[in-house]
């Protein structure tokens, strides 16, 4: 009988139990590879982070942190003492701090403000969606007190009363009718109060009242005096039990609303909060959300700088809530196919943050390109100086060979022109005349001349090659950096959001890892401008490597280094013995 009773109750009350449900490119610089993370998967607007930094993890010491790298990259403020280290008002510490502070206040502050605005706009959207759908898709605040008392107190508690076995204590003779009567009374009171006056009997009620036919005994009549033993009394008892439980649940729900200023708590059983457990008190829900929607007003009130002004949509969000006839729920409702108000707030805040970040990136990139361009020109000049030195050494070596072989103005090796096979007749002593007037001219040996580049190459390998190798590496690195900077500028200024984010992350990584040159790399104490001056002086100067080497070759009286000193007879004789075609003496060959 109990099963039948409960089934009937559910059939009777089925329309009242309809609840809303909860909608469920890599680059290489200086041997270091910089790659962007894969773009994040698309997420529903309700949880899409509005921040540029949310899609990519920016690095400390990058362009979005208050640090020396970013300040150097931007070339803002002073980075060294301008009036002398010991001048109290312009010492190195003060100037260095000034540069970082200028970068922080004049460059990063705008990004910080926009990031704060975007983050709060995103939090507001998430919080508002939670408030609108936090209870199984229903609003977290009271919308209609009467309906909700029925839906969340009376109905669930009455169904529980019917299901928990309480009615099994009735006499089996009328358990079913009493249960149906209690259910009908509940339905009538809560959904059709006037129907309680309607008699369901369709026959001749007057005849029954005037000619009753009844079988009873005195013992049965006495039993009927106990309310639990007659249907009417049992009905009233059962109804009172149900009403007491319902009243208790209603009071619990009213208390929650009162404590939360019209908001529900977060409950383990949102359909029957009287039987669930509170996981977040209602007052916490209400005050937290109130704090969030008051945020734009506080931010607007505290703005005292042009960069602290928030966007108009976000600033007017509270006014929108109280002026729009749709109220709080209007924030998430689309009108005429346009995005909802809260989506517009988040979109504009995100665009503001992205524009601020792009502005910082472009300033960094512009400064970086100027520095990198000057750096590239300087290291190319270093390469040109080293190339000039190499050419001058090799040219001097060729001139030495010409002097050694056939010097028209002084001692030399060959008395005849060089043949096609590089042979010639060596010079011999001067002709002599005997007493009879006969002249005798000695004949020199046959020589096979074998020139080389060994003398200049030794100097090049030992003195110039290390500088040339490091200079070539600097040229390649700088050339790659310039190409990368141009790519980043194109990415940052492009229309693709993914390309923008990728470019921002790459720039941030490059600066954080010091892979883009900064001003001290150019004009600092150890910068390439100083290195260029040093190379030009040490290699090409009047007392530099090239001049000193040529002097040593041509003027020294020892072999080596004076292999080219044709005024030294020992040099001429050494080359003759070295190049003797028929009897070469390799031990006499001058070597570097």
Automatic annotation (TrEMBL):
Keywords: Signal. Residues 1-20 form the signal peptide. The keyword Signal applies. It comes from the Bacteria. This is Uncharacterized protein. The lineage of its organism: Bacteria, Candidatus Kaiseribacteriota.
